[in-house]
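User: I'm writing a short report section on ligand binding and want a predicted complex to refer to. Could you take this sequence and flavin-adenine dinucleotide and write out the structure as tokens? A short remark afterwards would be nice.
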Amino acid sequence: RARFDKILLDHAKDTGAQVLEEADVKKLIFDGERLAGVQYQYQGCRHEARANFVVDASGRAGLIAKHFNLRKMNNKLQNVAVFQHYKDVVAENNPGVEGDVLFSCHEDGWLWGIPIETNVMSVGAVMPLSLLKQSNPEEIFKAHCDRSPRIKSAIKGATPLFDKPKVELDFCYYSEQFTGPGYFIVGDAACFVDPVFSGGVFLSMLCGLKAAEAIHEIFDGKDDLEACQDFENLCKTGYDSYFRVVYSYYYEFNRDMNKMGLNLPGGFRFVLQTFAGDFWAERDQPVLSYLRSKKEWDTFEQPFERIYDCPIYPDTHYKAADPASFTPPEDFLESINTQTQTETQKAAVL
Ligand SMILES: Cc1cc2nc3c(=O)[nH]c(=O)nc-3n(C[C@H](O)[C@H](O)[C@H](O)COP(=O)(O)OP(=O)(O)OC[C@H]3O[C@@H](n4cnc5c(N)ncnc54)[C@H](O)[C@@H]3O)c2cc1C
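Assistant: Sure. The structure tokens for the complex follow:
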């Protein structure tokens, strides 16, 4: 992730942006009601930057959302993550293929094992907040890792990088507003969804890209309000769909991704399309139309207009009306069923 951020930063510099690293935004500057810039601390001094539009990409800090009190916690997903990084990971202990992401689920949560550098792995356990409250981060993290034979094996002999496992609280939240006079809010600064399907970086990038496009359109003469509304509708469609996928994982399929793949309506290709991040599929796309039919899984209280256009691959993504469909071969289905049983049986024994 750090390397990826550096690539983006260097690219911004190469294309003419003035980039200040280690500058800390302290205050928002207003012209009347309109956000007109920021005050920031840089190399020990206070500075001001004024602009026609401010894009808030401050992540969980959420400067604008917090200033206007826009952030709402998502009460349907009251989970926390307890995580640790390990160095000197022993390749032979990895039960999977080098470079693959490991994923495990059990009755009380799920775990990730993500290689972040050669021989370094991030391991996290996601669980209900209520469970963490009954224990402490060290104990519960160990207990949850022990319940996953794959993760337990992957970190055998590796060295933890932090003194203690870290805890990420305030897990899932959303903002009802993504724009306002003079500003756009993108990525985690606006919304944070449980990371089980790893959609966070993608959605953040997409919102950033679309905010830039909206600002260009305004400079080219598009009506401010219309550009902001289109941007907000697109972001809300994306986050609303992603939240639904996550609700179905927790509430309908009891944290079993294999079951989701096999049982969501529409067959494998549309499940894959959705899992891969096409959250803007047409009305007749079976997986999303099913998930969207569940009123109780609405996230945003204010009505918004859904945008049905894949913002990344508008011409090449699967359309529900396409006659071709993809059904996985029998032996593939058998293999994932067997794997699920084995994992569950092992977890039960442990
Ligand atoms: C436990 C956990 C696991 C996750 N796993 C995954 C995963 O596997 N895949 C995935 O895609 N996503 C994952 N995510 C989500 C992903 O990390 C976020 O969605 C993504 O990083 C959001 O990007 P962002 O640019 O909006 O915010 P961030 O990456 O948080 O960047 C915000 C930046 O703003 C800066 N900033 C904050 N305040 C100020 C200030 N006052 N002045 C100046 N700068 C400021 C910060 O220093 C930071 O550099 C995970 C998240 C968590 C918590």
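A remark for your report: The first helix runs from residue 2 to 14. Confidence is low (pLDDT under 50) at residues 340-350.
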